[in-house]
Design brief:
Largest sheet: none
Number of helices: 2
Radius of gyration: 22 Å
Strand content: under 5%
C-alpha cells in the first residue's frame, strides 16, 4: 500500500468520524427539543401527562385545525 493510499484511507476515516459526530450531535439536539416541547405541553395542559398518546395526538390535531 502506497503512502498516498494510506493518506486517502485516513482522510476517508476522519470524514466518516466527523459525519458520525454530527449525526450524534443532531440526534441529541432533537431529543432535547422534544423533551422541552413535551415539558411545555404538560405545563400548559397538565392532563397531557395522563392522556394516552393516541388520544393526545387526536386532541392536538382537533385543536390545531
Amino acid at each position: 500500500m502506497t503512502e498516498n493510499e494510506k493518506k486517502l484511507i485516513q482522510a476517508r476515516h476522519r470524514l466518516e468520524e466527523a459525519e458520525a459526530r454530527d449525526r450524534v450531535k443532531e440526534r441529541k439536539a432533537r431529543t432535547r427539543r422534544l423533551i422541552q416541547e413535551g415539558a411545555i405541553l404538560e405545563k400548559v395542559w397538565p392532563a397531557a401527562a395522563e392522556t394516552e398518546l393516541d388520544k393526545l395526538e387526536d386532541a392536538l390535531r382537533q385543536i390545531l385545525r
